[in-house]
Structure to design on (122 residues):
């Protein structure tokens, strides 16, 4: 059974940091790209970042570049999203999802985690 489980629920102050984890089971991470998406209340789900099977890293939102870093540990079957200098506008439910190749289109992804809430507030 394929499962993706996000962790790293957090209430963080503006300017703070948080690392999200996406632990996968039921398939070998080596052969999949993993994307991070987020959805804020009243907004559409948007692509945050994706890491390819060959460890290429893609960031979909300009405001993230330099603040967010995606990485993977195939031995642990886990993908991470390190988020620094967090802003209130980063507040959203964050999801990880699996697909053979990276894409910014959430509807193209095959498997999804349940999501984890990130709140950036003072």
């Amino acid at each position: 059974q394929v499962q993706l489980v996000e962790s790293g629920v957090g209430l963080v102050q503006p300017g703070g940091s948080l690392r999200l984890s996406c632990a996968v089971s039921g398939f070998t991470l080596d052969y999949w790209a993993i994307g991070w998406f987020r959805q804020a209340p009243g907004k559409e789900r948007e692509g945050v970042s994706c890491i390819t099977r060959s460890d290429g890293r893609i960031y979909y939102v300009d405001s993230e570049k330099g603040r967010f870093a995606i990485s993977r540990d195939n031995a642990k079957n886990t993908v991470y999203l390190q988020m620094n200098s967090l802003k209130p506008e980063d507040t959203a439910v964050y999801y990880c999802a699996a697909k053979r190749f990276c894409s910014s289109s959430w509807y193209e992804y095959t498997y999804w985690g349940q999501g984890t809430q990130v709140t950036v507030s003072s």
Q: What stands out?
A: The first strand starts at residue 3 and ends at 7. The chain is about 0% helix and 50% strand. Residues 73 and 79 are 6 Å apart (CA to CA). The chain has a mean pLDDT of 94.
